[in-house]
Amino acid sequence: MKKSTAILLMFFISISLSGQVDTAKLRNDSIPDRIYLLQKVERNGETLPEIEIKEVAVVGRLKGSARREQSQFKKYQRLIYNLKKVYPYAMIVRERLSKVNAELARINDDKERRMYLRSVEKDVFGEYEDDVRDMTITQGKLLLKLIYRETYNTSYDLIRQYRGGINAAFWQGIAKIFGTNLKSEYDPYGEDILIELIIQDIQAGLL
User: Fold this and answer.
1) Distance of alpha carbon 38 from alpha carbon 132, whole angstroms
2) Is residue 90 part of a domain?
3) Which of 17, 41, 51, 61 is most buried, most CB within 10 Å of its CB?
4) Rounded to an integer, what distance in angstroms lies between the CA atom of residue 57 and that of residue 134?
5) What residues form DSSP beta bridges with 200?
């Protein structure tokens, strides 16, 4: 079993076994709508719709020796490989959160909620355990970033809200041992820009 297995499997189970979670505490209820709201702005006596557009970053070709360029290209190809493997799981987390939240909002009886959560736990183990076993530490770190991208919440925040602060602190400690941080955020306009560009190409079917 690889070192990342326990951490990632724990995370999938934790987000699936949500109990008395207050989803209002989660940013955007964990499920961003990808909707941009136009603001009405008056300029020179005329009111027009306006939206702030984020700065566009252009990544140029790296310069250097042929050996360095080859090494950078291999790293880039490896990043593409890892992202194509873990991105679908970030989408699964997003969809799972939406489904579990909607179902729990419908169930009022505590016993029925517990039965539903046990059923979810069984499904998660059966469906994802083998896949998670194959993930590397690097892929696990990328997955944590992509979970933030899809839910606007760190994995630590999700576990804290769904399973409590003690569980979150415990698993953060375990993650730290293996060089992982459950509080990892995602900066598509800074350090994670290359990841964002690759993800956009994956979404567009270019990779």
Assistant:
1) 41
2) yes
3) 17
4) 34
5) none
Encoding tokens for residue 186?
């995602």
Number of domains in the chain: 1
94 inside domain: yes
- Residue 43: phi and psi, rounded to 5, are -135, 125
| The residue to which tokens 């499904």 are assigned | 123
202 CB neighbour count, 10 Å cutoff: 15
CA atoms within 13 A on the CB side of 70: 3
Paired tokens of 60 = 């140029």
Tell me the pLDDT tens digit for each residue of 61-94. Answer: 556 666 667 778 889 999 999 999 999 988 887 8
User: pTM of this prediction?
Assistant: 0.68
The rounded distance, in Å, linking the Cα atoms of 184 and 138 is 13
Contact in structure between 7 and 172 (CB atoms under 8 Å): no
